[in-house]
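Protocol step 4 of 5: obtain the predicted structure for the target chain.
Materials: sequence only (see below). No template structures provided, no constraints applied. The aim of this step is simply to have a reference model before the mutagenesis design in step 5. Sequence pasted as it appears in the construct record:
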Amino acid sequence: MVGDDHGGLFLLDRRAKAYCGGQFGSSAAMAYRGTITVEFREVMMSTNVDQTASRHSRAWIAGAVITGLLGLFFAFDAIPKILGASFAREAVEGLGFSPDKTAVIGWVLLVCLVVFLIPRTAVLGALGLTAYLGGAVTINLHADQLPVVPIAMAVGIGVLTWIGLILRRPELLRVLGLRRN
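Step 4 output (structure tokens):
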């Protein structure tokens, strides 16, 4: 059974059958199915309530504004690189890369940004953007330039990325161990 009227439980019958040693109609299989159904519904109900309540809060709105501004910033950084704008190619070349790598860097940033802007994959996108910014810090140090301003910007933008995400999804504080219950 791929999906049923129990809120989208996937492959539940196979799991129940495997759990009960192949005896699909046994009382153990039915108990297993009931436990999963109850647990799944409780999780889905609590998740929906948390998301609905947080969407109207000031914290969620602030997180959405921060995310939107960061999205514009990253898009304005990625698109000229993808299109091969001369200033983007010169900047990349000044950091020690060959100019043909400019588009690759832009596409990596754009993919991370898109993944960050999709609510279900926002955490993965934030990790990607953090890694991208970490690479920016590293390459600025390697280029022997005065790295104070680029490093401060990259670190600040990385921190803002996570602040925006946590304001939109406060349950991440529990996952990170920064908040109990």
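Step 4 remarks: Helices lie at 12-19, 27-55, 58-83, 86-94, 102-117, 122-142, 148-168, 172-175. The radius of gyration is 23 Å.
Proceed to step 5.
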